[in-house]
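Summary for the lay section of the report: proteins are chains of building blocks that fold into shapes. Here we show the chain for DUF1127 domain-containing protein and then a coded description of the shape we predicted for it.
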Amino acid sequence: MTTPATKSQTATAWAVFARVFKLLKNRRQVNRLSHLTDEQLMDIGLTRSEVRSALRQPLSSDPSVVLSQAASIRHLSTVTRPQSAVLLAYEAPRSAGGQRPAKEGHLAA
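The coded shape description reads as follows.
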């Protein structure tokens, strides 16, 4: 007959085993990313330095978490651009004759 303490110890042992297995599996997957070209890595939102950095993490940490965080930070930095940059990129439309419309307070030539 198993006691509650034995069940708890067994559950803990399985949880540790599952975590170690997941860490090793994720490390192997990140290692495979290091064999991709720079263009392929950029397609999935990563850089070679981020992959190297993730693989340099201690064995007790999950490198896939490091890569996910790096990709999220990059995505947020490209999505949240300052509004002034968007306004600078705006070009006023030209009229049919190729001239820009007159500004308010200015006479058109």
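Put simply, here is one thing we learned. The CA atoms of residues 14 and 27 lie 20 Å apart.
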